[in-house]
Amino acid sequence: QVQLVESGGGLVQPGGSLRLSCSASGSIFSIYEMGWYRQAPGKQRELVAGITSGGSTNYADSVKGRFTISRDNAKNTVSLQMNSLKPEDTAVYSCNAQIATMVSRDYVMFYWGKGTLVTVSS
After folding, report:
1. What's the rounded Cα separation, in Å, for the pair 37 and 2?
2. Which residues of 95-115 are buried (b: 16+ CB within 10 A; e: fewer)?
3. Contact, 113 vs 4, CB < 8 A?
4. Which of 33, 76, 104, 118 is a good FRET partner for 95, with 20 to 30 A between their CA atoms?
5. 28: which residues sit within 8 A by CB, 6+ positions away?
6. Are strands 10-12 and 116-120 parallel, antiparallel or unpaired?
7. Do 110 and 96 meet the contact criterion of CB atoms below 8 Å apart?
8. What is the dihedral of CA 86, 87, 88, 92, to 10 degrees?
9. The pLDDT of residue 81
10. Do 78 and 95 contact (CB within 8 A), yes or no?
11. How many CA atoms lie within 13 A of 16 on its CB side?
12. Cα separation of 108 and 122, whole Å?
């Protein structure tokens, strides 16, 4: 079994910052790409940022220059530093990881955390 657990969401004023973290645990053989997605009320889920095991990153245009994704491969964690937050960043943020387990080392599955709510409001 593999679990992803997010932390760090909350209420912040426009212009403020938050840092989200996600920890993967369980019978993990290898973690490939990790990422953060978000879903705002009434909207489809969208990719916010992704990072490969080698550290290559990609970002949604709407967050470039404001958000930074990073990971610690030794700790199986991924983080999202969010600066200059805007009301339109309000959403449930979910962690995603492509993981091969100890039982199925050649088979990569997508795992999701339950999500953490980020509210940007004055």
Report:
1. 19
2. bbbbbbbeeeeeebeebebeb
3. yes
4. 104
5. 2, 76, 99, 100, 101, 102
6. parallel
7. yes
8. 110
9. 98
10. yes
11. 15
12. 42
Token pair for 89: 């960043």
Are 33 and 52 contacting, i.e. CB atoms less than 8 angstroms apart?
A: yes
Residue with tokens 């449930």: 92
Q: What six digits make up the tokens of 14? A: 């426009």
Q: Name the residue with tokens 């245009």.
A: 61
Q: 49-98: per-residue pLDDT in tens?
A: 999 999 999 999 999 999 999 999 999 999 999 999 999 999 999 999 99
- Reading the block at residue 16, the tokens are 């403020």
